[in-house]
Amino acid sequence: PLRSPPPPLPPPPPSSRRHTPRALMAQLTVASPTNIAVIKYWGKRDTALNLPINSSVSLTINQADLRTVTTVTVSKDFEKDRLWLNGEEEDVSASKRVQKVFAMVRGRSRQWEGMKVHVVSVNNFPTAAGLASSAAGYAALAFALGKLYAVEESYPGELSTIARVGSGSACRSLAGGFVAWDMGSREDGADSCARQVAPAEHWPELQVLILVVSDKKKAVSSTAGMQTAVETSPLLAHRAAHVVPARMLAMEAAYLKKDFAAFAQLAMQDSNQFHATCLDTFPPIFYLNDVSRAVIQFVHAFNSACGETRMGYTFDAGPNAVLLVQQQHAVQALAAVLTHFPAEPGSEASYVNRPAMQQEAMALG
Ligand code: ADP
Ligand code: DP6
Ligand code: CO
C-alpha cells in the first residue's frame, strides 16, 4: 500500500540540539521512503544543481516496505566527515554530491560549527538497481542533517532543494502520496522543488507490486546515463519540450480523478518513451532486460484478457518492474504474475499462498 510517510522521529531533547559550549555531540535517526516516477525525470539543464530539463511526478512508496534509515552523529571528537552505506565506508572526499548536501546544510545554520559528522545509512532494498535508492538515500540525508542542524526553511520546499542537489529524484521523497517536481525556471534552482499533488489517502486503493528482476548494481548510473542522453539523444530533447508538459497535466488530472486506466496508460507510455531515449542515446544504454520486456508483454496480455486496463507498469533506470494496480485487482494481478514469473524459492513472494492464487488466475483464464 502507498501511504504518507509517518511523522519524523522526535528531535532529541533541547539540551543536545542547541549548540551550547557544553554540547559535545548529538545524534539523530530518520527513515525515508523511496519514490517511483510515473512521469520520468531524465536529463539535466544544470549538472551542479541537478536542475532537470522536464518536470516529473512520482508515487511515494510505503516506507515499511522500501526505505532508507540514516543516522547522523556530530561530535567534537570526529576528525572528518565520514559515511557508511550498507555497512561499507564510502569516500566522502570523492563524493561531490554528499559534500554539496553538507555544505548547503551548514551554510544555513550556526550550529555545530567546526565539528564533523558521521553518517550511517542502510537501504532495505537493492541499491543502484533502478528502485530509486538515491532518492530515499539523499532524502534521508538532507532531512537528517536539516534536523540535526535545525535548518529553518526560508521558503517552502527549501529542504527539498537540498535533497535535489544530492540526487534529483530525492526531492520528491520528502512528501508522501503523489508528488510532482516542478522543473522551475530560476538559475539558482530555488523554484525547482517538490509539490504534493495529493496525499496517499486520496487514492488508498492504488498499490504497487515490485518485481525484483535483478538486485545487481546497474552498469550505468542514472547520473551518467542521463548526461550522455542529454548530449546525444534528439528524442530526449523532443520529449522534454513537446511531450512531458502535456503528459504532466494529464497525469495529475488522472490521479486526482482516480482514473486508473488513464493513469496506468500514461505511466506505461512514459516509461516506454524514457527507455526509448536510452536506446536513442549514443552509445545506447540498456536498462531493461529480457525478463523486463516479458513483464511488459505480460501486462498488455493481461489487460487485453481483462478487456480493460487493470495493470500498469513503469521501469526506472534498471530492469526491475513496478506494477501499478488497484486493490480490488491486486490478488488477481499477483496470482497472474506468480503464474507467469514463479518466484524463486525463499523469496518473499514465494511465501504467498500460491496454489490458491494460481487457481484464481486459472479461473480467470
Ligand atoms: P538508483 O536507481 O538506485 O537510484 P542511482 O544510479 O541513481 O541508482 O544511484 C545509486 C547511488 O546512490 C549509489 O551508488 C550511492 O552512491 C547513492 N546512494 C544510494 N543509497 C544511498 C544512501 N542510503 N545514502 C547515500 N547515498 C546513497
Ligand atoms: C529513471 O535522481 O537517480 O529514476 O539526479 O543524477 O542523482 P541524479 O539521478 P536520479 O535519476 C532518476 C531517474 C529515474 C526517473 C525518476 O526518478 O524520475
Ligand atoms: Co537514482
From TrEMBL:
Its EC number is 4.1.1.33. The keyword RNA-binding does not apply. Residues 3-15 have a biased composition (Pro residues). Belongs to the diphosphomevalonate decarboxylase family. Residues 33-194 form the Diphosphomevalonate decarboxylase-like N-terminal domain. GO terms for molecular function: ATP binding; diphosphomevalonate decarboxylase activity. It comes from the Eukaryota. One of its GO terms (biological process) is isopentenyl diphosphate biosynthetic process, mevalonate pathway. It comes from Prymnesium parvum. Keywords: ATP-binding, Lipid biosynthesis, Lipid metabolism, Lyase, Nucleotide-binding, Steroid biosynthesis, Steroid metabolism, Sterol biosynthesis, Sterol metabolism. Residues 208-365 form the Mvd1 C-terminal domain. GO terms for cellular component: cytosol. This is diphosphomevalonate decarboxylase.
